[in-house]
Specification:
Helix content: 25-40%
Structural class: alpha/beta
Number of strands: 20
Strand content: 15-25%
Radius of gyration: 24 Å
Order of helices and strands: HEEEEEEEEEEEEHHEHEHEHEEEHEHEHH
Number of helices: 10
Shape: globular
Strand order of the largest sheet: 10-11-13-14-15-16-19-20
Length: 455
C-alpha cells in the first residue's frame, strides 16, 4: 500500500504543477436563500487566450438569475458562460472575472474551463456525464428568461427600488425650494451642484447667493439643518458634482487626491451621504476611479456613489463613463442615465435607432447597461420631470412606469422586448425636484407608488 501511494504521488505531480489556465469560484455574498458568486479566470499558461468558456452544473433547486461580464446559456442544471467581446483575450498572467446571482443553497459542480478542469476552481464532486446536454444559445425568438432570485443581496442604505431627484442650488424658471420642502416621495436627493475651484480636482459648495435671496434669506447653516431634517425623515442626501456647465477635471493622481479630499470635506461639513458624478464634459475613468476609491476608503461601505451620464456616454463599454461604471461596480450604487436631450439612438439589439420619448427608447438603451456588466440594482431610468425640464425626451410619468414594468416583468413593453427580465432594476431619477414641484408633483406622485409594486 505504501509503495502504491508513492507511485501515485509521482504520477500526479506533473499535472498538479502544470501552469494552466484556471477558473476559481468564490461566493462573494450569501444571504441564505441566495448568493452572489464570482469566477476569476487566470491565464497561468505561456500563451495568450483569445476566448474562454466556463461550464458547470448546479444541484437541483439552485438556479442562476442575473449575471454580468459574460454571456450565459443553460440547459437544465448545466450553465455555460462565455466571454464578452472586451474580456476574452488574456495574456499569460492576466485575469478577468464574471459574476452572477444564485437562488438556492447549492454551489457550482463539475466546472470546466475551455473543456478542461477548472483547476483552482470548485473541483468536480462526481464524474462529468459522458453525454452532456447541448449548451447552444436559445433561438433569438425565445421569450425572456426566468427572473433572478426574489431575494437580492444587500444593496446598501437605500430601498430596493427608489426615486432620486435633483434639487437646484440656483435660480431658474422652476420653483425655488428650501431643501426641507422636498416632497416626501423622494428617497434620494442629489444637491446640484458642487463647483470647481482653481485647484485641479478640488470642489467646493455653499448656498448660491441668488437662491438665498430668492428664498428671502437662506444660509449655509439653514441648509445644513435642512439636510439633517431630510435624513430624520429617512431620506439620503448627496452632493452632485458637475452639471451641464460643470468644469471639474480629474486628470491625474494629484487631482484625484484633491477631489477625494475636497468631497470628503464637503460631506463632513454639510452631512451629505455620498456623491453623484454628473460630468457632462467628459471624465478620465482611471483617475476618477482612483478618487472615488479613495473617498470610499475614508467614508466606508455606506458611501453612496451615483452617476448621471448622458445617453451617448453609455452606448459602449469603451466609453469613459461606461468604463468608470464598470471599473467601480463593486462600490457603485446606481447609474441613472439621462434618457433625454439625446435624439434617436441604438439599443442593445443594435437594430434600430429608437426615438427618445418612447418606452422603446428607455428599455432598449437601459438594456445596454444591463447586458454589459452592470447589475440591475445599479441601473435606473433618468427622465425630465415635465415641461420646461429638458429640451427633448420628456415623457408622461406613466411611460416611465411602463419602462420599469417592461424591464422588471416583461409587461407593458413596446415593440422592443429585452432578452430577459430584471426584477432588481433600481428605480428612477428625475431632473428635477424643482421642475416636478412646478408641474404639480406629477412625476413623484406617479412613479414613486409604482416603484413600490415592483418585484
Amino acid at each position: 500500500m505504501a509503495l502504491t501511494a508513492g507511485v501515485a504521488a509521482i504520477w500526479l505531480a506533473p499535472a498538479a504543477s502544470a501552469a494552466t489556465p484556471t477558473a476559481v469560484f468564490t461566493k462573494t455574498s450569501d444571504w441564505g436563500s441566495g448568493w452572489e458568486g464570482k469566477y476569476t479566470i487566470t491565464n497561468g499558461g505561456s500563451t495568450t487566450i483569445t476566448s474562454w468558456t466556463v461550464v458547470f452544473d448546479l444541484p437541483a433547486g439552485t438556479t442562476v438569475g442575473t449575471y454580468w461580464d459574460a454571456l450565459m446559456t443553460s440547459s437544465g442544471q448545466r450553465y455555460t458562460f462565455t466571454n464578452r467581446s472586451w474580456n476574452g483575450t488574456l495574456a499569460p498572467g492576466q485575469s478577468t472575472s464574471f459574476g452572477f446571482l444564485g437562488a438556492g443553497s447549492g454551489s457550482p459542480l463539475n466546472c470546466t474551463l475551455n473543456g478542461q478542469p477548472c483547476g483552482g476552481g470548485t473541483p468536480p464532486t462526481t464524474a462529468p456525464p459522458t453525454t452532456r446536454p447541448p449548451t447552444t444559445a436559445p433561438p433569438t425568438t425565445a421569450p425572456p428568461t426566468t427572473a433572478p432570485p426574489t431575494s437580492q443581496p444587500p444593496i446598501g442604505p437605500l430601498p430596493k427600488h427608489f426615486l432620486t431627484g435633483y434639487w437646484h442650488n440656483f435660480v431658474n424658471p422652476a420653483v425655488e425650494l428650501r431643501l426641507r420642502d422636498v416632497p416626501n416621495e423622494y428617497d434620494l436627493v442629489a444637491v446640484a451642484f458642487a463647483e470647481a475651484t482653481s485647484t485641479p480636482g478640488t470642489v467646493t459648495f455653499g448656498v448660491d447667493p441668488g437662491l438665498a435671496s430668492a428664498l428671502g434669506g437662506y444660509t449655509n447653516a439653514d441648509f445644513k439643518a435642512d439636510v439633517q431634517a431630510l435624513k430624520a425623515r429617512g431620506k439620503k442626501v448627496i452632493i452632485s458634482v458637475g452639471g451641464e456647465a460643470g468644469r471639474v477635471a480629474v486628470g491625474d493622481s494629484g487631482a484625484a487626491t484633491n477631489f477625494a479630499n475636497s468631497v470628503f470635506a464637503v460631506m463632513q461639513e454639510y452631512g451629505f451621504d455620498g456623491v453623484d458624478i454628473d460630468l457632462e464634459n467628459g471624465l478620465n475613468p482611471t483617475f476618477m476611479g482612483q478618487a472615488l476609491r479613495s473617498l470610499r476608503s475614508r467614508v466606508g461601505a455606506n458611501l453612496i456613489i451615483t452617476m448621471a451620464p448622458q445617453t451617448i456616454d453609455m452606448q459602449s463599454t469603451a466609453g469613459s463613463y461606461f468604463r468608470l461604471a464598470l471599473d467601480i461596480r463593486d462600490i457603485l450604487t446606481v447609474v441613472h442615465t439621462q434618457f433625454y436631450n439625446s435624439g434617436s439612438m441604438l439599443g442593445c439589439d443594435q437594430s434600430f435607432a429608437y426615438s427618445q420619448g418612447t418606452v422603446n427608447f428607455l428599455t432598449a438603451l437601459a438594456c445596454i447597461q444591463l447586458e454589459n456588466g452592470l447589475r440591475p440594482d445599479q441601473v435606473a431610468l433618468g427622465l425630465p420631470a415635465g415641461p420646461g425640464a429638458a429640451g427633448g425626451g420628456i415623457v408622461a410619468p406613466s411611460v416611465v412606469n411602463q419602462g420599469l414594468d417592461c424591464l422588471a416583468r416583461a409587461t407593458n413593453c413596446g415593440s422592443f422586448r429585452p432578452p430577459r427580465t430584471y426584477p432588481g432594476i433600481r428605480g428612477a431619477m428625475t431632473w428635477s425636484i424643482n421642475w416636478d414641484v412646478a408641474n404639480g408633483n406629477n412625476f413623484a406622485r406617479t412613479v414613486k407608488p409604482h416603484l413600490n409594486t415592483l418585484p
